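WARN retry 2 of 3 for item q-0093 after timeout on previous attempt; input resubmitted unchanged.
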Amino acid sequence: MVTASEIESIVRLVVQRLRESTSASAVNARLDAVPTEILRLDEQLVTLEQLRDRLAGVRCVEVLRRAVVTPAVVDELRQRGIRLQRIDITATRVEPHDLLILAPASKHTRQLDEYKLLAADDTAMGLTQLTSHLTEAVCANAKSSAIWCSGQPYQALLATKTSPSLRAVLLPNMAELRRAVAEAAPNVLIVDDRWSSLQLVGLARSLRTGTQEFKREST
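OK item q-0093 returned
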C-alpha cells in the first residue's frame, strides 16, 4: 500500500517535471518568435493563410514584383503597421549549409543548429585561427558567408585583412545590413558579442531569406 509520504513525493516529482517542461516550452516559444524584421515570400500568389503565425516581430513583408497579393493580406499588413514591398531578386540567398557562424558557446541556441557553428576564441591566437577557418571556408565554397560574433570586433576586423579572400565589414546593427551588403558585398559580417543569441538568429535568418543585391519597390 502506498503511504501518504510516498504519494506526496510522487506529486512533487510530477509538479517539478511539469514546471521544467513548461519552462522549456516557454524558452522555445521565445526563440521561435525571434523578430526577423523582414519576411520574404517567393510565392506568385500571397494569401492571408501564408502569413498565419509568421508576422511576430516583422516590420516589412517582401514579395516578388509580379506576385498577386490578396486584399485581405494588404488590409492585415496595414492594420499591423507592416510595410509591403515588391522586389526583384538578382542574387541567390544564403543557404544554411553555406553560412558559418563563429560565436561564443554561450550564444549557441538550437535555432542556430542548422548552420555551421564554431565556438569563437577571442585571444590573439584564437583570432588568427578563426581567420584561417574563415579563409578555408570561403576558398572551399565561393557561396560561403560567415557571421563572426566577437568580444573584440575591431581586432577581428583587422585579423581578416590578412586574408585577401575575406571581405569583412563591422555590422553595428540590423538596420545597417542592407547598406553593408550593397556597398561592400561582404562574405564576413562581424558583430559585437553584445548581440544576443536572438539577434544572431535574426541576422542568420535575414541572410537566409536573401539580402544581397536586389531592387525594391514600395507598395
